[in-house]
């Protein structure tokens, strides 16, 4: 369906963002590209619809080179959802969704029917939402519109660049669930960029782990989980390991209270040491060179651990 044959991208500043990629994305597949910020995910994605021009190699869609497609045909037949909610603020929800069908000169009645069907598909009541402006919707609702806008003209392929990463965790989980359900119904070829391994494992039929512009591993979530090819992939999967490495006592430290301070840990103690003490005592004083600098409560620690890596301030890709 989409094949990459030795594809590289070198930017004008000589930065090689993507290096000699060989890849085949199958028809109807939910394909997730994952990797840390700056590893080339967005570049790889945008080369598919020629928003970024490749500098070497060939990308083909259904066997035909992307350079041989008419650029408008190519763009209109590939849905695209961005990380930033990118609805046009002055246009209604209906107008936003109708952009590509309008460009393709669909009949008005057909467009209206399509908009209604799409809004219903993602649980937004058409009578209530179609005439509103984007700012009258919540972030999660706006991104739902972003998703169905990409589907509007029934493209074969949908590209999604970290579409849910700007949302709060609850909306993100809901939209992931809805997207999975939607995909069961529409069976599009989806190329989805993420920097969140949990999201990738949840959504992907296959996932492709990237690092420094290169592919490190491609496989089903099960394959990658069971046989991570190297330490980089292992660390990327190991959310818990990650949180131990990331731990900084400042993230859970609270100001002193007047209570008694019977149980003291050092700010230099490791997370496992602190956790084992918190299992015994609900509140610990923290000392630094003999001075008490604050307290840690069981509650603040649990809140910290409940967040995933991306919420703990990891950079977005
Ligand atoms: P990701 O989406 O994984 O965060 P990108 O594809 O955006 O990564 O970027 C890959 C690399 O290419 C980064 O080092 C980035 O700084 C660089 N890069 C991205 N866009 C440009 C550009 N327009 N000009 C020069 N370098 C760029
Ligand atoms: Mg990116």
Could you walk me through the main structural features you see in this protein, from its secondary elements to its overall organization?
This protein has 317 residues and is an alpha/beta fold. It has 2 domains: 2-231, P-loop containing nucleotide triphosphate hydrolases (Rossmann fold, 3-Layer(aba) Sandwich); 238-316, CBS domain Like (Alpha-Beta Complex), CATH 3.90.1280.20. Helices cover 38% and strands 24% of the residues. The chain contains 14 helices and 13 strands. A 6-stranded mixed sheet has the order 6-7-8-3-9-10, sandwiched between helices. It has a 4-stranded antiparallel sheet with strand order 2-1-4-5, with helices on one face. The chain binds adenosine-5'-diphosphate (ADP) and magnesium ion. Adenosine-5'-diphosphate is lined by residues 11, 13, 15, 17, 35, 37-43, 317. Magnesium ion binds next to helix 1.
Architecture blueprint of SSEs:
Blueprint: E1 2-10, E2 16-25, E3 30-34, H1 41-48, E4 56-61, E5 64-65, H2 71-76, E6 78-81, H3 93-97, H4 99-103, H5 108-121, H6 126-129, H7 139-151, E7 157-161, H8 169-186, E8 189-194, H9 197-203, E9 206-211, E10 214-219, H10 221-226, H11 231-237, H12 239-246, E11 264-266, H13 271-280, E12 283-288, E13 291-297, H14 298-306
Parallel strand pairs: 3-8, 3-9, 6-7, 7-8, 11-12
Antiparallel strand pairs: 1-2, 1-4, 4-5, 9-10, 12-13
